[in-house]
Design a protein that fits this description.
This protein has 10 helices and no strands. The chain folds into 2 domains: 14-71, Arc Repressor Mutant, subunit A; 73-200, Tetracycline Repressor, domain 2 (Orthogonal Bundle), CATH 1.10.357. With 201 residues, it is mainly alpha-helical. Keywords: DNA-binding, Transcription, Transcription regulation. Residues 13-73 form the HTH tetR-type domain. This is AcrR family transcriptional regulator. InterPro entries: Homeodomain-like_sf, HTH_TetR, Tet_transcr_reg_TetR-rel_C_sf, TetR_C. Residues 36-55 bind DNA.
Length: 201
Amino acid sequence: MAERKRPRGRPRCFDRDTALEAAMMLFWDRGYEATSMDDLAEVMGLSPSSVYACFGNKEKLYEAALDRYLEGPGSYVARILAEDIPVRTAFERLFEAAARELTREGRPAGCMVATAATHCSPAASSVRAALAEMRADHVEQFEARIRRGIAAGELPAETDAAALARFLATVLQGLTVQARDGASRAELQAIGRLAMRCWPA
């Protein structure tokens, strides 16, 4: 009997969400350039050709994984900033949430956006630029929320919103580095509370 040929293309039971979740976790753990298409295909349960057919090239797959991260594990930042609460309370909650999320069991430590692609080869310059833009967007979100607090009388009128936003974003990014180096949730919470002592009187 002639050997049956293996069908080409993606498997019939292919689940896009499950495969993309696996890709997100691997990119989150290793970063963009340290993750190969063969590694991705293995964790996604697809052949390399199926990965290309379903998601395009590695850069497009990474973009899809980043979107999934921002809509899922990384969504706490935008969600807390949007809450109708005093601005100081919002940032206190943000640091508390960050300490939990950056050390959550079963996930890579740190933030996928903050840790990825700060150093890239010229071939990955577009990925580095996209991630830098995302980090800059966080600073802009912080500044906008602080300006709302100033307008509401929750902060002194002379508060430098841009500088305060960049300071808070720098602390948040630093928590990611600490988490990657093994800092505990309690240690990250202590850093966040210390940072809030710099809040304008």
